[in-house]
Amino acid sequence: MTTQNGNDERIALLQGTLDLLILKTLVMGPCHGQGIARSIQRQSEEVFFVDHGSLYLALQRLEDRDWISAKWGVSQNNRKARFYSLTKKGRAQLHEKTSEWLRLSRAMGLILSGGATPGGEEA
Amino acid sequence: MFKHKRSTEDFAEEIKAHLELEADELKDEGLSADEARRRARSEFGSVSVAKERFNMKGRALWLEDTVRDVRYGLRGLWRNPGFTLVAVFTLALAIGANTSIFSLLNQALLQALPVADPDQLVVLSFAGSHPGHTHSNGGNNEGHHHEFSYPMYRDLRDRNTVFSGLIASAPADVGVTWENHAESVSTEMVTGNYFETLGIRPALGRLFVASDETAPGANPVAVLNFDYWKTHLAEAPVVGRSLLINGTQFTITGVTAPGFHSMVWGSTPAVYVPITMQRAIEPDWDYLNDHQSYWVDLVGRLSPGVTRAQAEASLNPLFRSLRTSELSLQHDQSAKKRQEFVNASHLNLDDGARGFSPLRDGVKTPLTIVMGMVLLVVAMAIVNVASLLLVWAAARVREFSVRYSLGATNRQILRQLLVEGMLIGAAGAAIGLLLAPRALHLLIRWMSGRSPQEPVFSATLDWRVLVFTIAATLVASLLFSLAPAVQFWNPRLAESLRQQTGTGVGGSLKFRRTCVALQIGFSLLLIIAAGLFVRTIQNLRNVDAGFATDHLLAFDLAPEMAGYPGPAVAPVEQRALDAIAALPGVRNVGATNDADLADDNVSGDMTVTGYTPKPDEHFDAEVPWVSNGYLQTLGVPLIAGRYFTAADTATSMKVAIVNESFARHFFGSALATLGHHVSRPNRPATDAVIVGVVRDVKHSTVRAPAMATSYTLFSQAERPDGLRYYVRTWQPPDGAANSIRAAIANIDPKLVVGDLTTMTAQIDDTLLPERTIALLAMTFGALATVLAGIGLYGILAYSTAQRTREIGIRMALGAKRGTVVGLVMREVLVLAGGAIAATIPLAVLATRAVRSELFGVSIADPAVYGFGILVIGLVAALAGFIPARRAASVNPVEALRSE
User: Fold this and answer.
1) What is the pLDDT of residues B852-883, one digit of tens each?
2) Residues B422-439: pLDDT tens digits?
3) Taking Cα atoms as reference points, which of B448, B469, B444, B438 lies closest to residue B458?
4) Contact indicator for B563, B244 with CB cutoff of 8 Å
């Protein structure tokens, strides 16, 4: 994943996270590529920068995995666009990945905020 | 992987839609139409790159991920140089050894002859009796007699309808004189259609054609082998020039193309001559018109469209009828004889793509054994690298757990591990392939020993070896990279990871123990094999030959190779004996036409006066022709009668000396033997009276038991023959060799002193297969021990480090250092003991397969097993002791803090 410029405010997406974000975005309903990109950027309060080349590659990957499906349709402003929607499999994945991610980020948060007792590791 | 393929156009359409949607939105945010379009494009990044990435997706999505995995793997390996070096080096050694040995196996057992369309070739052999004289170089077995008579060959060649060519050849050693330099080389007598049928082209001049095989003695032309021409004649312009073969002038017509040696695999002739020149090559014999001299090997090329079975069916009636007419030429035409000679006869056609080869039978078992050992080494290397990878992977638990949390799938993790394994495998294979030709070269040079002949094996690797190596590497890489994968590829990963973190327990401990046990087992097997073969060699070297083999020099002298005519041969041989006897330091000198302990035999059946053979008795005795000082030179003790003396001459009464076995078989006792006459059946000129009986000595090889022997004098023999001289001298071998050469040159510079060597070196030559196995077994045994040491150390160091905390607690509670060392060592030794106990019965089973190659040592030899256990025990102890000491020197406070 690459950032396009040296914008400090934006964070390059970690491997695997983009997939998760796409799945999450599609929970709201079918959406086209441009909409997904906008949505991720907007919802992350412009912290994440989405490289569009990677986005379409990721979409293709998810489609190949049968986590999402695609079909051509017409957008609100009457433009032809390819709409992606979440499959049953994708929904299950989203659920699993989300809970993993939350556990990880909670642990990270606990450690980084420093106040909490060190958990997780028992010897 | 991809269910439906999206077209490029479809993707381009999507991008176009994206840009328009984005522009629309930007316009809504207040930008001008142009500005919005421009922004949309620039925000998107490079459209062409996106398209390109999509276009390449079929390969590329996979490729891109792989490239990333490779990069990531390389970085990881680079950051762990110790691990990487050991793993790659281990594999390189194993793969190098594997490739080298497989290359030999491939050349001997798999590779086709380097001729045109080898698949069309068939090797001919026959069943049925073959009364008369057979000149064989081995390779015959029941129902497969490979030597035919030349008249039979001609009839088969001229009257068959199934071959596009039928060729024959026979090997012989000759003396070649080129530019006044004489040397002994091997030659192949071949038929005129030999090269044409095999599809061999000349590198220079022309090769033989049918008109080079006309009548006995009428074709004094020669073709040189490329290698001989290159190494011995320095690529001189030879076409049209002549060389002397056994004193006869031959005109060189050409040189063969490089790479070709013979239709017989393992035969490396220097010179080819037409088969019709047989008398010039072997002056003592006249085979060409004799139906009862079996001496040529036959290979046919099937006509296109003819199968082997069809050809065999078509040839047998012809063969039968030829045998029937041959029978009418023989004395004995009884019904029994007819049954054996005609009715039981059958012509076999066997696959000839790899050529006829007596040598192949000889190397098959040793090579298979060595290949088995090398596969054990490879198995060891796999276990070794697997355990190292496992140790490394265990240290990466956190890395993997983070990747899982970030959405990596099992497949991605697995692929990452496989890619890393393949990287190690590829590096190991590359180095191994670089090492292999060098190792092969050394091995081949070692195996060819003192032999002046071109080595049979070559140190180059062909495609089959490369494919084998690559396949072996892939399988090996797959196996060892799956070891950690099995550990990580777990649906309930989070839990399993948590369990493993920090402690030495969990699923991997069992696996690690298995690795250690396997390593100990494999290396113990190899050490035991090495021990058995080393014992075999020791035993063979210490076999009592019955005479002293030290201070004994041997060399060949064949005056016929220098062009001496028959009657002049024995006198010059006698002159050589006298000249050497007069040399300073020489105690004794003798000669025989039947070299001792050189894997040679000259034998035949005997008629003995006063002895009535049992019905159907066929008793072969060794019948060497010797000089009168021969028995004394070797030091064969006399039991009864007398030795040969100088008074026994060409013209005096013919005399014989027999050995104990001979006396026992025919007369029961030595004394009863004296005065009886012995002769070869139907050869009255060989009749001789027995004047002495000597003790049995080993003759053919140190492995073979002594044979019944009847010694007669070469000076009283029917015909001349080349001799092997034995010189008992107290001078150092080199000095003695020089004075012997000078003495012979003094008689006639054209005389070739061939194969001058010490008796002990000659015995070693006959032990070459055993010595080769022993050498390789020792190499592999040592290699396995080192690998086991490294592997054990790696695993123990890791698992001990994992227990640092536990050890710290124990020490904090008052455990002594010795106790801690003992704790670790006990674990190691219990594990080693278990592995050893499990391996011993396996070793006894496995070594049964090599029993035929052993000599004087039991497959359960306690000394060998004891030594193996001791070595492997020491290695295990050492590998355990270092980490144990390190653990014991741990500071308890720091150990507790280490989490």
Assistant:
1) 888 888 888 899 999 999 999 999 888 888 88
2) 999 999 999 999 999 999
3) B444
4) yes
Q: What is the C-alpha to C-alpha distance for residues B254 and B223, in angstroms, rounded to an integer?
A: 5
Please give the Cα distance from B154 to B174 (Å, whole number): 25
Note whether A100 contacts B404, CB cutoff 8 Å: yes
Angle in degrees, CA B271, B276, B278, rounded to 5: 65
Q: Which residues contact B437 (CB under 8 A, 6 or more apart)?
A: B459, B460, B461
Evaluate the CA torsion angle B313, B319, B320, B322 in order and state its sign: positive
Q: Which amino acid is at B350?
A: D
> What pLDDT digit, counting tens, does each position of A4-63 carry?
333 334 454 555 678 888 888 898 888 998 888 888 888 877 777 677 777 887 888 888
Which residue has tokens 């594999």? B91
Cite the DSSP H helix spans in B635-682: 660-666
Q: Which residues of B touch A (CB under 8 A)?
A: 1-3, 6, 11, 13-15, 17-18, 20-22, 24-25, 43-46, 49-50, 53-54, 57, 61, 402-408, 494, 498, 501-503, 805, 899
Q: Which of A66, A77, A82 sits opposite B14 (nearest CB)?
A: A82
Q: Which two tokens stand for residue B695?
A: 């003790």
Asked whether the beta carbons of residue A121 and residue B502 sit closer than 8 angstroms, the reply is yes
In angstroms, the CA B236 to CA B230 distance is 8
Mean pLDDT of chain B: 85
Length of chain B: 899
Residue B263 pLDDT exceeds 70: yes
**Whole-number Å distance between alpha carbons of B400 and B497:** 9
Helix ranges, B45-80 (H): 47-55, 57-79
Nearest to A80 among B17, B61, B805 (CB): B17
Contact (Cβ atoms closer than 8 angstroms) between residue B555 and residue B813: no
pLDDT at B801 (0 to 100): 73
In order, the DSSP letters of B480-492 are HHHHHHHHH--TT
Closest CA to B197 of B306, B116, B309: B116
Q: Closest CB to B50: pick one of A20, A52, A75.
A: A52
Measured CA to CA, the distance from residue B145 to residue A35 in angstroms comes to 86
Q: What pLDDT band is residue B502 in, cutting at 50, 70 and 90? A: very low
Asked whether B541 and B224 are in contact (CB, 8 A), the reply is: no
ipTM value greater than 0.90: no
Is there a contact between B54 and A14 if contact means CB atoms under 8 Å apart?
Answer: no
Measured in degrees and rounded to the nearest 5, phi and psi for residue B483 equal -55, -55
* Res. B724: pLDDT tops 90: yes
Q: Residue A81: which of B21, B50, B502 has the nearest Cβ?
A: B21
Given a cut of 70, is residue B306 above it in pLDDT?
yes
Bridge partner residues of B248 (DSSP): B245
A34/B18 Cβ within 8 A: yes
Least confident of A3-17, A102-116, B325-339: A3-17
Establish if A42 touches chain B: CB-CB under 8 angstroms: no
Rounded to 5°, angle at Cα B70 from B7 and B508 = 120
Question: Do B407 and A104 lie within an 8 Å CB cutoff?
Answer: no
* DSSP states of A57-104: HHHHHHHHTTSEEEEEEE-TTS-EEEEEEE-HHHHHHHHHHHHHHHHH
| Residues B547-585: tens digit of each pLDDT | 888 899 999 998 888 888 888 899 999 999 999 999 988
Among B83-92, B277-286, B807-816, name the most confident range. Answer: B83-92
Question: Smallest CA–CA separation between A80 and chain B, in Å?
Answer: 6
pTM of the model: 0.73
State chain A's maximal CA–CA distance in angstroms: 61
- Of B486-500, B521-535, B620-634, B817-831, the one with minimum mean pLDDT is B486-500
Give the count of Cβ contacts less than 8 A between chain A and B: 98
